[in-house]
Amino acid sequence: MTERTTGSIRARVRAEMLDEIKAAARKQLATDGASLSLRAVARDMGMASSAIYRYFPSRDDLLTALIIEAYDSLADAAEDSEAEVDRADLVGRWLAVAHGLRNWALDRPHEYALIYGSPVPGYAAPEDTIEPSTRPVLLIGTILTDAKTAGRLEEESLPTRTPAPLVMEIREAARVVNAAVGEAEMARALIAWTELFGAISFEIFGRLNNVIDQRFAWFDHQMRAMAGFVGLR
């Protein structure tokens, strides 16, 4: 057996073990929330607690791996949903992103809670989490730019002038998501984006219980209202 073949086998075995550890950690999320314990994960897997540290040196390293994978999986869902819609259907693309995000959250509520729920005590997310977390927002930036370019972003629907202290921050947000729009248009999109995740969180965390039973219809109604609020027609 060549050295290259041996190295390839070792890499494959390590990758498989990493996946098994993360799968066990996700099960723990479902029962204990974000109170992850490497020792508990090792115990559930039937391995020595000392062995797991060869793969994840600390709880924070494991949390970071789970968070990055959750963000990437969420973004994949949004991108796949949006890609199925005709490019000229701006409202349809916005709705596809929104429903893609909601569907993912409903399928994986514990992972959604990990990335959009209460902060994990003692954990500070590293810069590695930034790029995957921004992927869905880049979709919105593209939709806004396409609408602006096509002359289909209705300015009369925009709010009053953006308060001066916010102008530079809103312009920076537009730059980050590659949205070729003004600060008033970007501000409105950020409000709609906040509403989108607020609507998902209300549903995931039980805030609609005994209030709204027709959850799909309610979410779709909110997101169509937000499309209009942004100025998409």
The averaged pLDDT comes out at 91
Distance, first to last CA: 63 Å
Q: Find the count of extended strands (DSSP E, 2+ residues).
A: 0
Question: Quick one: overall form?
Answer: elongated
Strand content: under 5%
Number of DSSP helices? 10
The largest pleated sheet is described as: none
H and E string: HHHHHHHHHH
Cα radius of gyration in angstroms: 21 Å
Class computed from helices, strands and strand pairing: mainly alpha
Q: What's the helix and strand layout?
A:
Elements: H1 3-32, H2 38-45, H3 49-52, H4 59-83, H5 90-107, H6 109-116, H7 130-149, H8 164-176, H9 183-204, H10 215-230
Helix pairs in contact: 1-2, 4-5, 4-6, 4-7, 5-6, 5-7, 5-10, 8-9, 9-10
Offer a concise description of the structure.
This protein is mainly α and 233 residues long.
Describe the structure.
The protein is mostly helical. Helices cover 70% and strands 0% of the residues. It contains ten helices and no strands. The protein has helices at 3-32, 38-45, 49-52, 59-83, 90-107, 109-116, 130-149, 164-176, 183-204, 215-230. The longest helix has 30 residues, at 3-32. The model has no long low-confidence stretch (mean pLDDT 91).
